[in-house]
Amino acid sequence: MAKTASSRKWLARQQTDPYVKRAQREGYRSRAAYKLLEIQEKDRILRPGLRVVDLGAAPGSWSQIAARLVGRGGRVVALDLLPMTPLPGVVLLQGDVREPAVLEELVTQLDGAPLDLLLSDMAPNITGLSAVDQPRSIHLVEIALELVRERLQPGGVFVVKAFQGEGFDQMLADIRQSFQRVVTRKPKSSRPQSRELYLVAKGFHP
Ligand SMILES: C[S@@+](CC[C@H](N)C(=O)[O-])C[C@H]1O[C@@H](n2cnc3c(N)ncnc32)[C@H](O)[C@@H]1O
């Protein structure tokens, strides 16, 4: 099948990207691993025994890291639209976070107990049209924030990918209302030309 210009560009970037090579060498499922590892180094969000949900988890590098760091006493539930290859120590769910039945299943997998940490690296399929992509990405953050407000322990932590643009400031203000401290992180492994960044929100108060 003929390759489109954008898939050729993607392939070329994958072949030269140092983080892609490093992920292959170090056994991570994607280069996204290094974003979470950098956040972990600065913010110390993962530790043994925590109960973690990973939204937008496929192919699974964040869950790999989370499962390792929470250990046997913790729990990691991972959700994605896409199927994922099984990962030791991780409960995998496939579905769309925008569907209430999928969220219900997620809550069931937590045995009704509150969460210590909600991770969301969700991103919509990018069309290149910011009038379409930006509201979709904000909507995904809003859904993750709803889950936070329903399920996070007081004092819990929320790490979420967001894209700078229309609606960002308002969404940030909304998150700030529920947390003692919110910082923005732009990991080195996040491509400089991308408007993505991560919000690390600590000290949840319902
Ligand atoms: C950047 S990737 C995540 C990479 C992942 N953190 C890792 O370490 O491998 C973003 C993911 O968000 C998922 N996603 C986007 N919209 C979603 C939705 N509505 N429900 C569930 N997952 C979604 C996509 O399928 C995609 O796999």
UniProtKB/TrEMBL annotation:
Location of the Ribosomal RNA methyltransferase FtsJ domain: 28-204
Binding site for S-adenosyl-L-methionine: 60, 62, 80, 96, 121
Chief localization: cytoplasm
Reactions listed under catalytic activity: uridine(2552) in 23S rRNA + S-adenosyl-L-methionine = 2'-O-methyluridine(2552) in 23S rRNA + S-adenosyl-L-homocysteine + H(+)
Any single Gene Ontology cellular-component annotation: cytoplasm
Top EC group: transferase
Alphabetical keyword list: Cytoplasm, Methyltransferase, rRNA processing, S-adenosyl-L-methionine, Transferase
Cross-referenced InterPro entries: RNA_methyltr_RlmE, RNA_MeTrfase_FtsJ_dom, rRNA-MeTfrase_E, SAM-dependent_MTases_sf
Active site positions: 161 (proton acceptor)
Pfam families in alphabetical order: FtsJ
Keyword field contains Cytoplasm: yes
Subcellular location: Cytoplasm
GO MF terms held by the record: rRNA (uridine-2'-O-)-methyltransferase activity
PANTHER family the UniProt entry points to: RIBOSOMAL RNA METHYLTRANSFERASE, RRNA METHYLTRANSFERASE 2, MITOCHONDRIAL
Role description: Specifically methylates the uridine in position 2552 of 23S rRNA at the 2'-O position of the ribose in the fully assembled 50S ribosomal subunit.
Family (UniProt): Belongs to the class I-like SAM-binding methyltransferase superfamily. RNA methyltransferase RlmE family.
Annotated protein name in UniProt: Ribosomal RNA large subunit methyltransferase E
Organism, scientific name: Thiocapsa imhoffii
Gene: rlmE
